[in-house]
Every structure is written in C-alpha cells, then in structure tokens.
TrEMBL record:
<dbReference type="InterPro" id="IPR023393">
    <property type="entry name" value="START-like_dom_sf"/>
</dbReference>
<keyword id="KW-0812">Transmembrane</keyword>
<keyword id="KW-1133">Transmembrane helix</keyword>
<feature type="transmembrane region" description="Helical">
    <location>
        <begin position="6"/>
        <end position="24"/>
    </location>
</feature>
<keyword id="KW-0472">Membrane</keyword>
<protein>
    <recommendedName>
        <fullName>Polyketide cyclase</fullName>
    </recommendedName>
</protein>
Length: 184
C-alpha cells in the first residue's frame, strides 16, 4: 500500500511539473555591448574566424579538458566550431551570414539540454579607431525540460556572453599578431 502512495505522489509531482512548464517562458533574449579600442574590420576578424574566436570565446574554458573542431573556410558561411566539454556540455556555432558590419551564427547547445539559438553580432565605428560591438543571443527552450531549466540556462548564457565580450575586448586590445594562447 505504501508503494502505491509513493507512486501516486510521484505521478502528481510529474504532472505538476508538466503543468508548470506550460506557463514558463519558451525562449530567451540576451543583448550585451562593449566598446573595443580597435577598428571594426579588426574586431570583426576576431569574431568571424573561429581560429581567433576560440582564443577568447566563453565556450573555450581555460582549464577544462575538451574536444573541439573547426571546419569550413574562415569567415565564410558554413565555417563551424564545435565543442564537447565536461563542465559546460556540447554544442556548435556555424557562421550563417556575414556582411560589412554584421555576423550571424546558428548556435546549438546539445548538452545539458538541447537548445537552438541565433547568435548575432553588430559592429559600429565608435570614435577614432574604436568599435562598438553588440552581441545578441536568442532562442527557444524545448518543452518541458528546457523550460524547467530555462532560468538557469538563461542566467548561465548571460554570464557567458558578458565574459565573452570582456575577453574579446582584452584579446583585441592586447593583440600584437603573436598571441597563440589565452594570455589574459
């Protein structure tokens, strides 16, 4: 009889979680900006080419064992960076489109939960030899697990985007053409 009560309680909890997930946000939007003391073309190059991108981006931890792969032609649609890490899971970025002041990536997080998103960048001339960089990341959360984990995922992504912009700024402003590893 006790087993039936435990089973019934478990079913009630699962049903409640499914109902709660219906009312949680089904997506997220993050927008952050930074001013970098380098020209637009220079900064765009550090974002659009994954060989530079991996030196500053937030999905390339300094201390975590990882697997990563870069494929495609640098700064061209189809250029792709994929990763698999113990701490942050697995995912990939694929360059979808690029023009003189914008870069658009498809972002896919495969683990801990599958999330598809857009990762868009805008570069504006700002003063003399400075660039205002705006990073927008937005996507949807799958029902029900993604929505239940949505707050935590949004918070973590927001922190990673903020850290990524800070690291991009440091990388660009310290770059002298010889940096081969993360020194900042």
């Amino acid at each position: 009889m006790t087993f039936l009560y435990i089973l019934a309680a478990l079913v009630v909890v699962i049903v409640l979680l499914l109902i709660i997930a219906l009312f949680l946000p089904d997506g997220y939007f993050i927008e952050k900006s930074a001013i970098i003391k380098k020209p637009c073309d220079f900064v765009m190059d550090k974002v659009a080419d994954f060989h530079n991108h991996i030196l500053w981006n937030p999905w390339q931890p300094k201390d975590s064992p990882s697997e990563s792969n870069i494929t495609g032609i640098s700064k061209r649609p189809g250029h792709k960076y994929s990763w698999k890490r113990t701490k942050i899971g697995a995912g990939c970025l694929t360059l979808r489109d690029i023009d003189e002041r914008h870069i658009h990536f498809d972002f896919e997080l495969l683990k801990p939960v599958k999330v598809s998103a857009r990762d868009n960048w805008q570069f504006e001339e700002w003063g003399t030899d400075e660039t205002k960089v705006t990073w927008l990341n937005f996507g949807t959360f799958p029902y029900p697990i993604g929505r239940l984990m949505g707050y935590m995922l949004h918070k973590n992504l927001k922190q990673q985007v903020t850290q990524g912009l800070m690291d991009l700024k440091k990388f660009c402003e310290l770059y002298d053409g010889t940096i081969a590893v993360r020194h900042f």
